[in-house]
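sorry for the late reply, my laptop died twice this morning and i had to redo everyting from scratch. anyway the thing you sent over, i finally got around to it. pasting the sequence first so we're on the same page, its 346 residues, then the predicted structure underneath. double check i copied it right bc i was rushing
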Amino acid sequence: MITSEFERVSLPLADAFTISRGSKETAENVVVRLTDEGGMTGHGAAAPSPHYGETADTVEAVLPDLLDVVESVGDPHALDRVERRTRDRVHDNPAAHAAVSVALHDLATKRLGVPLYRLWGLDPDECPPTSFTVGLDTVDRVREKTADAVDAGYPVLKLKLGTDRDAELLEAVRDAAPDVTLRVDANEAWSPREAVERSRLLAEHDVEFVEQPVPAENPEGMRFVYERSAVPVAVDEAVETLADVPRVADYCDVVNLKLMKCGGLREAHRMIHAARAHGLEVMLGCMIETNAAIAAACHLAPLLDYADLDGALLLADDGDPYDGLDLSDGVIRLPDDRSGTGAEPI
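ok and here's the structure:
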């Protein structure tokens, strides 16, 4: 038997988070709790994005249907059955599905007494470091945020670009952090020709790769950039679910997957292996999320080339109702002494 409940939480950010599409100071998440007959509880959360057609309101609207399926199945280990039936009941709403997926995996592996990565037999010593994101801001403020990230020990930074100040922002980051591994995310802000031109500037500043330089709705534009770019190209907005992987495989080097785009851990696992089969490198990213969601994503880290799992790191002190994994200095430390995802309410 499983009982369920959910709750909306508003998470204040440490600093306003700005990308080329807009800015936010809080993130709305919806936390899901699944409790078995013995009182053991699995935790998960949805971090919906309006860019993908979801809000906290839509998540709250469909969760009763999804959780009705979970309760009717009644077995947290019946992950395939629950996934199949919840997708039959609610076709879209991936963040809502992801919240249920994470909570089920958390509960199932708590009942087994093992950390989640053990369910897949993964090696906890093979996790890449997570990047830390520096959002759009004034040049001086970007320089300050970069210096703070360096002082905190983060070895990989991701810089948001997509303005007429891109060259100045990039130079400010490199002035403050000449030795860090640097990635750039344009969030669809450039035209194909702009992206190719900007890629030369990125190469001059030793940028590892550029993420989603042109709109996802322009695959030919992405191919134009991929064939001419001076740095490797990653896609994010252009790849949401498993079916998207083969579609993007001939115009990118890296795919950025997210639980909140694909609908949960099982789909993410399938997408990672599909990307490998197409010769692509894999990054797992996130939205701005509570540890109740981020912790689960971290358990997939041994399968990745790159991680961008800093969503909870961007929250204000005491802004997260959940404690999670230790990601200080960017190192993903998977626990061997905590079962489930490792996220617990504070």
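The chain has twelve helices and 13 strands.
thats about all i looked at so far, will dig more tmrw
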